[in-house]
């Protein structure tokens, strides 16, 4: 379980301005409510943090949603929290392995440079070329709010976050994937009941 005071500190203080007892303080008042004081003579802050469950929408199996540069992208996870999160990964197989080997070699060359510039792009960045539109059966307008691509151990993974959270009256979520080449793919998923979680 995550320490809520730690969450508050990470949200309110950057790494270059770590909290200290003299410059600022965070005090837990009750479950999810915190008093935050920057020692300004005119005001303090009352911050409320609400824990939201992450609910995975079951996929019967991974779904191929496109191909980019010879590597096929699969839908591997859809989850709900205070957003809709969609996760793609590369299909296992020779194309992925060859591209992963090429990336590993380019990364080693980059590490060995005396004055390295920008590192090579994560392999999954190519999946950013697969367009995604999210909709539901009651016409909610979803918009992309953030994305994350790659990382050590997740070189092919792409995570997109869309807002808002599906309304309680929505019963079905639709994901429309449009790869740069090939046919579009539509995935329809039943939404869990609003009281789940």
Task: Provide structural commentary.
The chain is mainly beta and 197 residues long. The chain folds into 2 domains: 4-48, no CATH class; 55-190, Immunoglobulin-like (Sandwich). It has 2 helices and 12 strands; from the N terminus they run αβββββββαβββββ. The protein has helices spanning 4-12, 94-112, and strands at residues 25-30, 33-37, 45-48, 55-56, 63-68, 71-80, 84-90, 131-136, 143-149, 158-163, 172-178, 185-190. The strands form 3 sheets. Strands 4, 5, 6, 7, 9 and 10 form a 6-stranded antiparallel beta sheet that branches. A 3-stranded antiparallel beta sheet has the order 1-2-3, with helices on one face. The two termini are 16 Å apart.
CATH secondary-structure class of the largest domain: Mainly Beta
Element string (H = helix, E = strand): HEEEEEEEHEEEEE
Overall radius of gyration: 21 Å
The dominant shape is flat
Q: Number of folding domains? A: 2
Helix content: 10-25%
CATH topology of the largest domain: Immunoglobulin-like
Number of helices: 2
Number of strands: 12
N- and C-termini, Cα separation: 16 Å
Task: Return residue spans where pLDDT drops below 50 for at least 5 consecutive residues.
Answer: 14-22
CATH architecture designation of the largest domain:
Sandwich
The biggest beta sheet, please?
6 strands, antiparallel
Percent of residues in beta strands? 35-45%
Classify the secondary structure makeup into a structural class: mainly beta
Overall pLDDT metric: 86
């Amino acid at each position: 379980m995550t320490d809520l005071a730690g969450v508050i500190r990470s949200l309110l203080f950057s790494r270059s301005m770590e909290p200290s007892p003299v410059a600022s303080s965070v005090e837990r008042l009750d479950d999810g409510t915190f008093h935050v004081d920057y020692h300004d003579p005119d005001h303090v802050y009352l911050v409320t943090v609400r824990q939201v469950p992450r609910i995975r929408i079951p996929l019967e199996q991974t779904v191929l949603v496109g191909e980019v540069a010879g590597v096929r992208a699969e839908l591997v996870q859809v989850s709900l929290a205070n957003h809709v999160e969609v996760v793609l990964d590369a299909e296992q197989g020779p194309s992925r392995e060859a591209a992963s080997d090429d990336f590993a070699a380019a990364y080693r060359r980059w590490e060995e440079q005396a004055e390295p510039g920008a590192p090579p792009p994560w392999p999954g960045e190519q999946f950013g070329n697969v367009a995604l539109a999210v909709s539901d059966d009651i016409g909610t307008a979803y918009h992309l709010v953030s994305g994350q691509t790659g990382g050590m151990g997740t070189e092919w993974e792409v995570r997109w976050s869309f807002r808002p959270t599906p309304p309680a009256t929505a019963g079905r979520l639709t994901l429309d994937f449009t790869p740069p080449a090939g046919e579009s793919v539509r995935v329809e998923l039943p939404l869990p009941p609003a009281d789940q979680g």
